[in-house]
Each structure stands twice: as structure tokens, then as C-alpha cells.
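User: Quick one: structure for sequence A, then sequence B.

Assistant: Sequence A:
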Amino acid sequence: MEAIGDQIVRIFMVGDVMLGRGIDQILNYQNDPRLYESYVKDAREYVKLGIRKNGPLPDLRDDDYIWGDAISELEEMKPDLRLINLETSITTSKEYCREKGIHYKMHPKNIYALKAAKIDACMLANNHVS
């Protein structure tokens, strides 16, 4: 919380929000699942791992599904500003930097997932920028 004059401003900041890889594959629009990691070559493998660990995905997933309990927690906190470090580019480009082993991306039409959490701003200044 930050005080401005007599007013308290609540800021929610979080890093490492991953909406690429397997998350991109369970949303309404999917990118090419091909990955350039040394250990996983297809993002759908992450979906399979998640299902194996947590059980099947519901057939109908609301826009806020991927956030779990986080949205209700955020609503309770009532932040004035919601900032996240998005660990993925928002693109459908198939280009990638061959020197990098990680190329996370989420389909632009899945922006509703960020809107569902009422995210005000995203930063993409991390090791996944290429």
C-alpha cells in the first residue's frame, strides 16, 4: 500500500504470470503448440501433465478459470491498480530466436483471460523477450 496525501492506494503486483505453453493450449484460442525447449517440444505435454496430476479439465471453462481462487482474493483486497509481469509474449508469430531455448507465447484472442482478472497493466521485461 502506498499513501498519497491522506489517501491510501492499494497496488497489486505479481511476477511470473504464465499464460503461454499449456495454459495457451486450454484457452479458447491456441497457438502452434511447438516448443523449442530442450526437454518438452509440444505445449500439450504440459496439459497432459496437469491432467495427470489434478484430474480432467472441465468441458466448460469460464474466462476466469485459469486464475482459480486468485480473482476472489483480489476482489477481497480491492486493489486500485493491478500490475503483472507477463511471462509470455502475446502473438501468433511462428518466428523465434534460434539462440534462445524458450519462446513462450499466448494467442492474442485470449486477452479475455487478462480482462477476467481486471489486470490494468502487464510488463514483459524478462528473460523470455526475444
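Sequence B:
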Amino acid sequence: MVVSYPRPDSADLLFHALADPTRRDIVATVLRGGSSVSALGRRYPMSLTAVQKHVAVLERAGLVRKHRRGREQVVTAEVEALRDAARVLDRLESIWRDRLERFADVLAEPAGGPTP
């Protein structure tokens, strides 16, 4: 079975972006409400440039977007991208559950093999 994704390469971008704990925390933070890049920078023990790079990875994956509000760059979450990731995981879970059910059927067969 082939698992289809919402957009070509989108799953790779999504899961690469979510693979890092700082980026996951940034997504969780902006899901609660938009945050300026500078405010995000104060949350982490790293340079503002490093935080900007994390935000850029999230933006390429479609998980967040930036927009100007005065002099600030405000980061907000793109919920649909998270739904895309959930759909991919749901499909993979479905494949795994089907496999487990087939395995359970094999274990339930009598020792001599399937009955005709």
C-alpha cells in the first residue's frame, strides 16, 4: 500500500521541521497566540539568528507564517499544516493496525494451518 501525502515532499518538510524540540515548542507557543520573533528569541538559550533560522524551517514547512505588525515580525501557526501531518500519521497508523489484525488472524489459526 502506498501512502499518499497532501503535497509532494510536504511530509518530509513537516516531519523534518517537527523533529527538533525547539521548533515543536515554537509551534506550540504560536498555536496559543501569535508571537514576535524577538519574543520567541527571549524564550531560548540561543542567538536571535538561530531562532530566526528555526522559524524559517517552520515557515518552509508551512507550519507557521510571518507577517509584519509595525516594526515586528509576528509568527502565527498554520493549523492546516498540522492537520496534514495528522492525516499522514493516521494513514500510517491504519496500515500498522491492518498488519496487526492480519498477524492476530495468523496466530488464531490452528497449528496445522488454515482450515479449508
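The chain has one domain: 10-108. The longest helix spans residues 79-108.

User: Thanks, that's what I needed.
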